[in-house]
Amino acid sequence: xxxxxxxxxxVEEIQxxxxxxxxxxxxxxxxxxxxxxxxxxxxxxxxxxxxxxxxKKVIDFQGELLLQGVHDQVDxxxxxE
Length: 81
Prior knowledge:
Low-confidence stretches: none
Radius of gyration: 11 Å
Largest sheet: 4 strands, antiparallel
InterPro entries: Costars, Costars_dom, Costars_sf
Organism: Characodon lateralis
Number of strands: 4
Mean pLDDT: 95
Pfam families: Costars
Protein name: Costars family protein ABRACL
Order of helices and strands: HEEHHHEE
Strand content: 5-15%
Family: Belongs to the costars family.
Strand order of the largest sheet: 1-2-4-3
Oligomer: single chain
């Protein structure tokens, strides 16, 4: 899979699992995304896809790298619907 395709799939999964925040943007907790069975089957390297999407300003989250357990409560915010 290419990066652009994986980012599009990531957007779809954030929309499926997330909810609107106070600003009207869709957001999801990293732990929810990471522990979802469908996401686990789609993404070989979820963290890498998240990093690429952040670099392209499709999503935003605090920090540079998200790790399971430690960052489960970090919000991933969708910047482009």
